[in-house]
Design goal:
This protein is α/β, with parallel strands linked by helices and about 350 residues long. It has helices at about 10-20, 35, 55-60, 115-125, 145-150, 170-175, 190-210, 225-240, 255-270, 285-290, 310-315, 315-320, 335-340; strands spanning about 75-85, 90-100, 105-110, 130-135, 140, 155, 245-250, 275-280, 295-300, 300-305. A hairpin with a 2-residue loop joins β1 and β2 (about 90-100). It is globular and about 65 Å long. Bound molecules: adenosine-5'-triphosphate (ATP) and magnesium ion.
Length: about 350
């Protein structure tokens, strides 16, 4: 006999999904990033590793999101609408609707010239679109200059690093601090008011340099660093202002293979600290291993987005980005190694 009290299948499924969502642990109060920076991914003896609550929660939330371009997400930190940038007759960016999920690691991939860097420039105020609007953490960001964007919590690194070669590594870090009171004309007359802040900035800078394995170089000119070390320095500097969203433009390019794993760990631990990450990357191994969500851009448009595995297995994506390698099985990591740098 049919059980009349039993909810219909759809309702039962929905109830299960709601329960799963409710089961998500609420974020505990965390120490600021720089205090735990020295831990890296290895906690001191007797201490717990930084919680993975954010990663778990994002994975669960995004599991319910359709894999289609421009899809709405449960808790977006950045929302872009109809953002268009033309250079002469060429449209470099034409993004209809795009959302980045808070606390997630989102990869932005696409062939050379797809418009990825231009999109970063537009979102962070380094370039101005022909039209469009975008909101960061609920605030309209059009006509906001890059310094203010950074103060609001959205910070980017550059594909071609921009470190000050003739300043020391430590001084480069201090330039990333949002509050540099010693440089203010009026406040500099009252050393008591700024010495403490400067001291804090320095401690924070040193903790980050330690984490990024650059502490021994802190007094060297930044110009003496290798290409990979400059990338690390830029990322560390971006963290000086405790961003809510960090946008990394090809963070792995030029990084020594030995440092790559630790860079991956750094990015994952940023998420665990509650920082949202958007990164552009051609290394699809990296994308597969750390991204919660993958967005594909081609000719300025978002052409696909979704779970890494689903997107990477989409024949249209494979065709567009892997060209001659379209027939390879992307589920096999050994094959991916051969394709590194081709996406
Ligand atoms: N300042 C500029 N003036 C003219 N054209 C530009 C300018 N900046 C970018 N472009 C063009 O816009 C298009 C998108 O460039 P963009 O650098 O954003 O691509 P990308 O996806 O970052 O590529 P890559 O993977 O090679 O870094 C390209 O055709 C590029 O030549
Ligand atoms: Mg680029």
């Amino acid at each position: 006999m049919a059980d009349n009290n039993k909810p219909p299948v759809d309702a039962a499924q929905k109830q299960k999904q709601d329960q799963q969502k409710r089961a998500v642990p609420t974020a505990t109060v965390r120490e600021p990033f720089y205090d735990i920076a020295r831990w890296g991914t290895k906690p001191p003896p007797g201490e717990d590793l930084i919680s993975t609550a954010y990663g778990d929660r994002v994975a669960r939330d995004l599991a319910f999101v359709e894999n289609e371009p421009g899809v709405h997400k449960p808790d977006p930190i950045l929302v872009a609408d109809n953002v268009v940038r033309r250079f002469g007759g060429m449209t470099a960016v034409d993004v209809g609707h795009f959302e980045i999920e808070r606390h997630g690691i989102t990869a932005l991939i696409g062939p050379n010239g797809a418009g990825k860097t231009t999109f970063f420039n537009l979102m962070t105020g380094f370039d101005v679109p022909n039209s469009g609007s975008w909101r960061f953490d609920g605030r309209d960001m059009q006509h906001v200059n890059p310094e203010q964007v950074a103060r609001d919590g959205m910070v980017r690194t550059f594909q071609l690093t921009k470190v000050m070669s003739r300043l020391s590594v430590l001084d480069n870090m201090l330039l990333g601090a949002p509050d540099r009171p010693g440089e203010s004309m009026v406040r500099s007359l009252f050393p008591g008011t700024w010495r403490k802040k400067e001291q804090e900035n320095r401690q924070k800078a040193e903790a980050l340099l330690e984490r990024f394995l650059l502490i021994k170089k802190k007094d060297d000119f930044a110009g003496s660093l290798s290409g990979g070390q400059r990338k690390l320095l830029e990322m560390a500097r971006a963290l000086m202002c405790d961003p809510k969203l960090i946008m990394l433009d090809e963070p792995m390019a030029g990084v020594n293979p030995a440092l790559k794993q630790s860079l991956l760990d750094h990015i994952v631990s940023l998420r665990e600290d509650g920082t949202t990450v958007l990164f552009v990357e051609h290394d699809i191994n990296m994308v597969r291993h750390i991204a919660d969500w993958v967005t594909v851009m081609a000719e300025g448009r978002i052409v696909a987005e979704g779970q890494p595995r689903t997107v990477m297995d989409d024949p249209a994506v494979v065709d567009a980005y892997l060209g001659a390698h379209a027939d390879v099985d992307l589920g096999d990591d050994s094959v991916l190694e051969g394709l590194e740098g081709r996406v």
